[in-house]
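S.,

Sequence below, as promised.
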Amino acid sequence: MPEVDVKDRENKVVEKMTLPESIFGLEPRADLLHEAVVNYLANQRQGTHAAKTRGMVRGGGRKPWRQKHTGRARHGSIRSPIWKGGGVVFGPRPRDYYYRMPRKQRRLALKTALSSKLRDGELTVVDEIGFDRPRTKDMVALLRGLGLDGRSVLVVTPEKDENVYLSARNIPGVDVVRAADLNTYALLVHDNVLMTREALKKVQEIWG
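The prediction came back faster than expected:
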């Protein structure tokens, strides 16, 4: 059974937690992780891009010059796609990029990402993260104490914690997420994952 050290703020081990094989003992699946990341990024796209066709561009109603006997190429509109300021051929149109990835695959991808983080030594568990008030210095001191300063870190809390979120939001590369909102992309895009003991239990409840 996989195990993880639970540390205090001074980076001292206070206990060991046994983790379920079904979440933290899976073999890497690069294909599944890739599919989950592509799905996440596609679903984040707004799809509001647009380019005007020749029918949408203002002007160009009059034929610029007569058809014959000018020595110039024939044209019917100055808004033709071959003219500067004309319409765009096959340009982007508003569309919805959203698509659903099968639920079992989504869950398996997340578990595989968690297993990879544990296997690579990129998962740190602390007994608790609690601040009396929002203060960036406190979060910086916590990360430095755990040897995570200067890295991109995903901080996972059991529930929404405003003080933790506000203390971390000005630190480059550090993001805070609830255990219930964890996703494969967030796990893979950060170098390290920092969880509280309670957040780890929450993860096991939800995806166990």
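DSSP finds seven helices and six strands in the chain.

Coffee later?
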